[in-house]
Amino acid sequence: MTTTRNPRTASHRSPLLAAGIGALAAAFPLSTLAQQPRTEATLSPVQVTSSRTPQQARDVLADNIVITSEEIAASGHKNLDDLLQQKRSIEISRNGGPGTNASLFLRGASNAQNVVLIDGVRVGSSSVGGATWSALPLSQVDHIEIVYGPRSTLYGADAIGGVVQIFTKKGEGPPRFNADIGAGSYGARTIEGGLSGATGGEHSVHYAFNLGREKARGFSATTPDNAFSYNPDPDGYTRESASGQLSMDLAPGHEIGLRFLQSHLDAQYDNGDTGYNDRTITDVGAYSVYSRNRLLPNWTSLLQLSRGVDRSRTPSDFGDAVGNTRQDTITWQNDIALGTDLLQLLLERRVEHVDTSDQGVGGSRATNSLAAVYQLKRGAHLASASVRNDDSTQYGSKTTGSLAYGYRLTDALRVNGSVGTSFRAPSYNELYYPGYGVPTNRPESGRNVEAGVYYEKGSDQFSAVAYRNRVTDLLVYAFPCPVSPAAYSFGCAYNVNEALLTGVTLGASTRIGQFTLRGSLDFQNPRDETTDKLLARRARRHGLVALDYRAGPLMAGVETQFSGKRFDDSANTATLGGYALLNLYANYAINRDWSAYARWNNVLDKDYRLANGYATAGSNVFVGVRYGFR
């Protein structure tokens, strides 16, 4: 790994636990651990995503992370993909700076092989597959849950690598205002604010409304070695967002409500030095209304109607490209408590609508789903079993299932294992894009097995998980096209490959006086078995190590984030060098209501790449002032 200067300097930019941390430090003396600091009160937060019902995170039979609102505030991050990139088992690829196209790889799975939810509403593009991360605003986020491994029995198609769920802010207690304003390198400016609270009484009303605006002048998204697209002008972005929640308690055990998030992104990109203001305009939204009712003392019903939208328009001197996706879903979930056990029954219908400027790429498909889950909790024993059938008007019927078991050796130490199946539906581009899509393409199928050990006592935590996920009928670019080489003279999307995603992920955290040492380390081998090549833009090892210091109103920290080398192409001929970044951050509580914060990324001004031909930020600083709590 080199330490050359970045050319863009103009903008200024217990024994078990000890052994775990020792292993991390020995493997990477300058790198590692991933989660932001967690206080005693939040060591085992409530987790919803893993089972679609509130559950103590320490009882979840799947590897998971909860990123609390305290962690988000302490981190000083202003972009969601930057925050997630520092979490274990997650890698990010981005074509330039914040605001440009980004992909998330979870345990080596592609961006399209993960499900993204906002307050229980699925978001993403059905035409290209996967969520549009650049348009999702961190300013509207209260907390985030990440569940690793196959979740198709709970969420249907695409949950091969895992699920990321974003929760917006909720109102509690007396009325309170919050505000945040900041500025930084590359002309970055942010302002956000909101109002939240709840009324008292039997028919209480909870409310929360937030607005945010971010803008940056940015830097050139491309580098001179990008022969086709390079343009030395800065590529900035503007992101405006709003979110809200409003709910009412009609009677004890009966609640109705609505939630929404809307984000508008206008981001420049490079398309060659044409003199045209090339940019992508994206609107992402998640909207839902729901009714939660306790039908019997042991039976709770949730009925939700939701809509997720992903609309994009790309004006350029070659013409406008349009891709619009709408996903309408009706969900009826029933949670029935049977002593300490829980039976869940789920009915769901999702209709995807696609409208694009590409001839033949559009239409709609409906998926009807039925699922059953049984969770067992008996003393030291934890277990779950689930099965689900998804019947699509486009790709037919798919049945998935999972089994998991955990055993508490002590109150602090647990071991567990699981097996599960999953699938990914072909995107509309893989089915219908002219000269590329094949209408007979089948869903990808995943089969995962994993085992883990988890330790949590006081402020000490350690986890080690090994997994093996085989994906068959992998949809890849095939040349010549097996269907009809003459009809697809430039190749096509086709189910020709198999992938094997294997790895071991380690995480640890401990407090020593006023210091907290934390981190993660991932060893992985995400491989295309058909070609015996590594999957593009995935490293064999990556992670983060951080040390936080707290003294009175001050919290300050240093972190080293690293990644090994990757390949930028499926043939493994174009190399992306490994890198290590040094970051600093601090928060200071001025009084009960006001605080100041700062973050200094890439302190040593490392020149590195997340994609060949695309630039990354040099040394850059962001500072701000916050009123109230997130």
From TrEMBL:
Start and end residues of each TonB-dependent receptor-like beta-barrel domain: 215-603
Gene3D superfamilies for the chain: TonB-dependent receptor, beta-barrel domain (2.40.170.20), TonB-dependent receptor, plug domain (2.170.130.10)
Signal peptide bounds: 1-34
Pfam family, one: TonB_dep_Rec_b-barrel
Compartment(s) of residence: Cell outer membrane
Origin superkingdom: Bacteria
Keyword rRNA-binding: no
Membrane topology qualifier: Multi-pass membrane protein
UniProt entry keywords in alphabetical sequence: Cell outer membrane, Ion transport, Membrane, Receptor, Signal, TonB box, Transmembrane, Transmembrane beta strand, Transport
Domain TonB-dependent receptor plug, chain residue ranges per copy: 58-163
PANTHER family found in the cross-reference section: COLICIN I RECEPTOR-RELATED (PTHR30069:SF53), TONB-DEPENDENT OUTER MEMBRANE RECEPTOR (PTHR30069)
Family statement drawn from the similarity comment of this UniProt entry: Belongs to the TonB-dependent receptor family.
Descriptive protein name: Vitamin B12 transporter
